[in-house]
Amino acid sequence: MTLSRVNSSAATLTKNRTEGSVTPLSGMCVTCVDGCIGMCEIGKSAFRGHEVIYPQPFGVITTAAEKDYPVDYSHLSIMGGVVGAQGIEPDSDKAIFPAVDLEVRFGRDGGLKFRYPWIIPGIGSTDVARNNWEGLAIGSAVAGTGLTIGENVSGMDPKAVMKNGRVVDTVDLKRRVQLFKEHQRDGYGAIVVQTNVEGTRFGEHEYAINTLGVECVELKWGQGAKNIGGEVKIRDLAKAQMLYDRGYVVLPNPTDPAVVKAFKAGAFKEFERHSRVGMVSEEEFATRVEYLRNVGAKYIFLKTGAYRPAALAQALAYASRYELDLLTVDGAGGGTGMSPWRMMNEWGVPPLELHSLLYQYAARLAAKGKYVPALALAGGFTFEDQIFKGLSLGAPFVKLIGMARSPLAAAMVGKTIGRAIDAGEVPVYVERFGRTKEEIFVTAHVLREELGEEEFEKLPAGAIGLYTYYERLGQGLRQLMAGSRKFSMEFLSRDDLAALTRDAADVTGLPYVMDVDSPLIEDILDA
């Protein structure tokens, strides 16, 4: 069984000449012919080189791996029953799915509260994030969930003011924070500012805390899409030179006269800006956490990626030892605004395996009486069934599910529909529901009622799209929880799941579906 596609993908805008006859191991056409123009990834690399490492076109896409992992969340099934109810009176007139409470509270002091158990973890300096931030920020704030401003936002801002290498004013980061805070309701949700190596050097956290009033900050070790630092493409020479001057790794060197000449001649059209990889040590980690608390951070998070198990144990151990408020663990495969395509497919621990290891490690710490921070799982989650499975697999430690590509997709679709409405060119597929925001977006009447006429009219369509997607996830999750007789978040447990294959049972530690409830069955049948 081949798990990966090699040498052709929509992500790299490549394909095989003989699509029906491809060698599984290499991905090459069975017959590679002299005279082919080079449609495959090998061929395209022959004339565009390193550009083909990355999914294309940059700035208008998000990407995730095509790899078909041996086990995943679809190999788990949700268990239900017919007896009783937890979190509500076992009365058929009261135990209805709209009564399920999805609110979650977490943090060392329990002071963070979300209306839904999910968060957008780390959407940063790529164009696709910046161009859709209005929908993401306002939609998240109105829904009462969390949103993380990813790495490099200040560093990428050409209007940011730097003094002695430290950020003292911004346009983009300020806008991103304010859009969320201006629409936050009743203290629900949180805006989080994340930094990497460069952001730490720029003093981005200090600026966010002391100037922008941010309470939640996040340290970043990595993500599921790659095991190197953040990357973006730059099409403007002056901006590439500015980023080089700010200390970023920019390829090719935009200050080299030969490179400048080649760029102006059209030999290449994009520079690459790269972030450095972090070098983790416990001493520096402890010092940084203490420092952030001293400068006013109320909540401190850590995000780590799909690194080897020892690195996962290290992340959890540090988060426990220094009492962080949230640890997000992102499984291999994406998504991303820009990561090396082969790396995204071929490195790291996949989500189900990584999350199962995380549960094992958290349970081990808890058994020793040690502090276990709230955990968030990320890596390909998009719908309510997957959210239920992730929360249950990691219960009682997992409080949130991290999603980025799907909320961004909802915001982009909402924005596109809004533009179509304004232009009077609503597509037929959408027009069957109506031609106005009130007719097309099913949550519009609720939002109008809750926010008032004036505020509703100011809502960007992207925000309504994200809010409406979240509303769907919320109702779907309530239905699944009611079917499992769980009416609030604290009652979700690993007992709500079964493994559909022996391999999935071995990975997760969950019972094989044929073995579920075995002791109970004997008692029931032998009574």
Tell me about this structure:
The chain is α/β, with parallel strands linked by helices and 527 residues long. The chain folds into 3 domains: 54-228 and 282-406 and 466-491, Aldolase class I (TIM Barrel, Alpha-Beta Barrel); 231-274, no CATH class; 410-465, no CATH class. The chain is built from 22 helices and 19 strands. The strands form 6 sheets. Strands 5-6-9-10-14-15-17-18 form an 8-stranded parallel β-barrel, surrounded by 7 helices. Strands 11-13-12 form a 3-stranded antiparallel beta sheet, with helices on one face. A two-stranded antiparallel sheet has the order 1-16. The mean pLDDT is 95.
Write the layout of secondary structure elements.
Layout: H1 41-48, E1 63-64, E2 76-78, E3 104-106, E4 112-114, E5 118-123, H2 127-130, H3 133-143, E6 146-149, H4 153-156, E7 161-163, E8 166-169, H5 172-181, E9 190-195, H6 197-202, H7 204-210, E10 216-220, E11 231-234, H8 237-245, E12 249-251, H9 257-264, E13 271-274, H10 282-294, E14 299-304, H11 309-321, E15 326-330, E16 334-336, H12 341-346, H13 351-367, E17 374-378, H14 384-393, E18 398-402, H15 405-423, H16 428-431, H17 437-440, H18 444-451, H19 453-458, H20 461-483, E19 497-499, H21 502-508, H22 518-526
Parallel strand pairs: 5-6, 5-18, 6-9, 9-10, 10-14, 14-15, 15-17, 17-18
Antiparallel strand pairs: 1-16, 2-19, 3-4, 7-8, 11-13, 12-13
Helix pairs in contact: 3-5, 3-20, 11-13, 14-20, 15-20
